[in-house]
# Entry
Amino acid sequence: MKNKQKLLFAAIFLFFSSLSYSQFTHVGVAAGYGTEIREPGFGAYGIFSVNEEIKIVPNIMYYLPHKVTTDDGTQKFSWWSISVDGDYIIVNQGMVRVYGIMGLTFMSITGEQDEVINGQPFEDKLTMQKLGLNIGAGIRFPLSEYIAPFAEVKYTLGDAADFQFQNVPVSQFSLVAGIMFRINETKPRGQQED
# Structure
């Protein structure tokens, strides 16, 4: 646990340190699907431009609860995540930007159990937080000066969330599509206002 806390603090430090060298240029909304939660999700994105090739992309996703019916009753899982990804633009051709993704994610998973076990009603609710590593790729289509649809596929590597009533895998593929809106122009470092 101490190593995970150190990793989280290091990621937060690097994120806020990098903000002093970047410009907040885009905000966006997205919809996605997680292969382990097996439900659609909705989220918000931002882009901090370090330079033309490197972007810092904080994002948050909330997935709709997934309900599992068992012989004894029901189990329900809710999942949300906050990520800080680094995007490196590999292809910058006309109206196409292809980029690689690597980043850290903080996940919160809540499991609820409402079952009858051995003739007795049993209810339980547990919440677990996990750290994970994101790896993936994405594509943006700047349709105009201010609007850019995008799509991403990411794989999140993480330890399983071990609930008493079910082991929930944290590693999952997520497919995301959304739209970015430019709110600020990326300026060369010499032209930035103090």
Confidence is low (pLDDT under 50) at residues 190-194. The CA atoms of residues 71 and 155 lie 32 Å apart. The domain at 2-186 is CATH 2.40.160.20 (Porin). Strands lie at 23-34, 39-49, 54-69, 73-93, 96-117, 120-140, 147-158, 161-162, 167-168, 172-182.
